Amino acid sequence: MDDVRVFVFLLTAAILLGAAPVRAAGGSERAVAVRAARADSAFPRGRGLADRISFWTAIFTRYSSEQVVIHDSMHLDKVYAVLDLGGATDKEEAEIIGAEKRRIRAVLLRLDDREGGLGELRGSERTIAELFRDRHEAGKFRTAADRIRSQRGLQERFSEGIRISRRYLPEMEAVFRQAGLPTELTRLPLIESCFDLRAYSWKGAAGIWQFMPQTGRVHGLLVGRSVDERRDPLRATEAAARYLAEAHTELGTWPLAITSYNQGVRGIANGVQAVGSTDIERLIDGYEGRAFGFAGQNFYAEFLAALDIERDPERYFGSMRYERQVPTDEVVLSYAVSVGDAAEAAGLTREELGTYNPALSDRVIDGVAPVPGGYRLRVPAGQAEPFRREIVTAAVAQPPPPERVVRRTESGVHRVRSGETLSVIAKKYRTSVTTLKRLNGIRNANHVEVGALVKVPRAGGRVGTLAKAPTKAKTSTSRSYIKHRVRRGQTLSLIAKKYGTSVGALRQHNRIRNPGQLRAGQMIKVPGS
Q1: Same domain for 178 and 312?
Q2: Are 90 and 235 in a shared domain?
């Protein structure tokens, strides 16, 4: 423990949260002011939110992952200590944090015993008593003793999230703009995942928007063993836009719709009914729903803090090098293809193809399963047509094995009302219970909750059919060919170009199922003289 540096700073909120970061050179103050003014009307911030916003701004920008802030869970301006845990193991961290919480609790209980006769206080008792000078309710110290909470700093993770976000925000903003939604909402992934494409929660949420499997499916995402579009930033953004538009229609304000992203529309609707107001501050202060805990109470304030920081990140983090947007084209696969063929046709390695298409699972990238038909494959900009030609040529020579294609449905969303069953909903939309179960991943038709969103075929809509793989072309019976010994680094594509033939023809003449397994020294037949 000698190498574990533990510094405990007993600070007042004014010292801890009051000072603004020094502005770094660069950036347009006018542009920041315009964006802020535009957002203020859609995303109001009353006085009651100020302490929460300041707290999360500090957590996101000031405190590192090796620092833990000990604070009051209700009044976030009451910060008792900051622990520096650099070098400590997980077990040591837990022991240090637990010991500090117990120490602060003991101080609060001693202050409660002396309430009304505080007299001359010294040390920790005086510092903590000063934190509560603005609180005048009886028993304030005793109740505070049950609200001690710890929060780890997120400075590194948050700055990295902003750096990565620049690669995806232009396309994400275009999606929200087309949907008629405020583009500022695209900053929600900063507090959901810090734009970590591989982010998974212990509850099973995935991707930058942290969709649960069922919620993702309801809002149009493919979630399966081969493809999980929750991990695709653009596809997940399209689903998030649909969710937020529906939530705003249902709840009436953006603060409530944003909070519902953490709590669910029904949970927030229940809170609004309980407090008799759509005001977010009244909901935070007055709603005591069982599921409406610290995360729900702070979600909107976290969003506002993230919005402030992202508008002018160099003010908080200094000079930054952002990821650049990578222009891509999309190709809708009419049938399943092997990842080796897809990567070669796109001029990429398998790993690079996976980077362009994060929705593809490891089993697809590893070649265990093909890229399914119906998938919208991303390739480098300008490569769509060459990709199509190469894939069709390969399919003519060696059609892939039969594969269940991914079928997309022209669909809408229905919110389940009291008394409705899947059978009732199926009749309303002139479809079948089986179709509804398939579209929504529902195993038990009897377990459909009131208020749940169910994806349904639109009027006149039908399950989309995909183009069939081209039939195998008749090939020449000529046996005229030459032999070529594969050199190190050569691919079928390079060999085909050398001899003026095609990858498909080479695969056909040599019965090559996986071009990625071509090896140096191998002798292959090249059709033609």
Answers
A1: yes
A2: no
Cα–Cα dist 9/216, whole Å: 44
Amino acid at 1: M
Which two structure tokens, joined as six digits, stand for 172? 């994400």
- Tokens 């709603």 correspond to 287
Residues 33 and 169 in one domain: no
| Residues 444-454 pLDDT 10s | 666 676 666 77
Burial of residue 214 (CB within 10 Å: 0-12, 13-18, 19+) is middle
Tokens matching residue 519: 């090896």
- Number of compact structural domains in the chain: 5
Domain region containing 496: 479-529
Residue 455: name the closest of 446, 464, 442, 443 by CA.
Answer: 442
From CA 208, how far away is CA 193, in angstroms rounded? 5
- 76 and 98: one domain? yes
Look up tokens 């000529």; give the residue. Answer: 478
CA distance 146 to 139: 12
If DSSP states are collapsed to H, E and C, what string results for 199-257? Answer: CECCCCCECCCCECHHHHHHCCCCECCCEEHHHCHHHHHHHHHHHHHHHHHHHCCHHHH
pLDDT tens track for 294-318:
999 999 999 999 999 999 999 999 9
What's the whole-model pTM score?
0.69
The pairing of beta strand 453-457 with beta strand 411-415: antiparallel
Which residues are CB-contacts of 318 (< 8 A; sequence separation ≥ 6)?
24
